[in-house]
Amino acid sequence: MSTNGMAVYCEGVTKTYITGSTKVQALRSIDLNVRLGELLMLVGPSGCGKTTLISVIAGILDHDEGECLVFQQNLRAMGQTQKTRYRGANIGFVFQAYNLIPTLSVMENVAVPLLILGKSRAEAHSRAREILVRVGLEDKLKVLPGDLSGGQQQRVAIARALVHSPKLIVCDEPTSSLDADTGRLVMEVLRQKALSADRSLIIVTHDNRIFNFADRIARMDDGRIVLVEPQVAHQ
Questions:
Q1: How many domains does the chain have?
Q2: CATH number, position 96
Q3: What is the reported pTM?
Q4: Which of 230, 184, 222, 202 is nearest to 27 (CA)?
C-alpha cells in the first residue's frame, strides 16, 4: 500500500507489556492511517490502548511487531540519538501529566523545544510569548508552573507542543482540565495547525464536547481499532 499523503501509517502493530510472569497485550494488530492535513481523534474506554498507541506513533515506545511509519520514516529502526533528533524536529507531544519543568517559568518551559533545536534565546522566548498569547496566558509568562491551575498548566503543555511548528502533534486528553470555552479556544488553535496540508494532529480524548473538531474518529477497544468514522461538521 502506498503511504503517499499519509502522516502516519500503521499495519499489524502489536505491543505487549511484561511484568514478572504477567503479559498484557496492549495493542492487537493495529491498522490505522492518519492523513496529511487531518485532525484524527482516538476514543475508547480507559485501558483500551490509546495512550500506548500514540506513544508508539510518537516514537516514545517501540512496538513489538508490525509496521509504523511517521512521514514514511521508521522510528523503530533509528538509533536513539537519531530518533530523539527526529522527534524533536517533527513531533509535538502533549502528555496527560503535562511534564512541565517546575523551576522554569511558563515562557521558559514553552521555549525549551526551540532551544533544543538551536534557536537563540531571544527567538525562542519571542515565539514562546506569541503562542502563549494565542492560548490566553499572556499574563502568566513569568509565573512558575506550580503557581498555575491544572487547566493553565495544560495550556502551557499545549503551547510547548506547538511552539516549534511540528509536522505531527499528538495530544493525550488536551481538554480534560478545561472548561467548555477554554477547551474550544485550545481546539481552535490546535485545529489551525492541523489544517496545513503538510501537518497532522492526533488527539486522544474522552471529551465529547470537542468531537466536532475532528475530521475522523477512530474508536478503540481492547487494543484494537474497531471503527473509523468521518466527522463532517467542524466549528
A1: 1
A2: 3.40.50.300
A3: 0.88
A4: 222
